[in-house]
Amino acid sequence: MKPLTKHIPNLHPKFFWDFRFDSIDWDGGYKMVIARIVERGGQDQIDEIVRFYGREKVIISIRDEIFFLPNYAIENALKFFPELKKEEMYCYLNRKDKPYSWI
User: Fold this and answer.
1) Residue 69 sits in which domain range?
2) What is the value of pTM for the model shown?
3) Which Pfam family, giving just one, matches this sequence (predicted)?
4) Would 83 be classed as within a structural domain?
5) How confident is the model at residue 102 (pLDDT cuts 50, 70, 90)?
């Protein structure tokens, strides 16, 4: 019997410095993975999450499911996925005109 191999996206562990990389639930944690890559990755990493999850799932996640992205990550998402509109993104509508701070 062939052992089950775990399929994971080809992403560098540096993007997930605060997780145990070998324990990430790539299917169940797709929103975290997509948000992290949109926020911190470049075109190569975006291409990889699109390959791994599918373009439609990535776009739906960014538009409808991700609760928060900083302004620069929203702008990145619009560059990577021109079919998105800021006014339709949940992470934008959720805090439109609301200041955010980590302190």
Assistant:
1) 26-94
2) 0.85
3) DUF6922
4) yes
5) low
Structure token pair of residue 58:
């990535």
Q: Tell me, yes or no, whether 73 lies in a domain.
A: yes
Tell me, yes or no, whether 41 lies in a domain.
yes
**Tokens matching residue 3:** 């052992």
| Distances from the Cα of 91 to the Cα of 30, 35, 88, angstroms | 16, 10, 9
Between 88 and 5, whose confidence is greater? Answer: 88
> What amino acid occupies position 54?
G
Q: Answer yes or no: is 42 within a domain.
A: yes
In the structure, how many helices (H) and strands (E) does the chain have?
5, 0
Query: DSSP code of 19?
Result: S
Cα angle at 89 between 87 and 69, to 5 degrees?
120
Per-residue pLDDT reduced to its tens digit, 64-91: 999 999 999 999 999 999 999 999 999 9
Give per-residue burial for 44-55: e unless 16+ CB within 10 Å, then b. Answer: ebbebbbebbee
Number of domains in the chain: 1
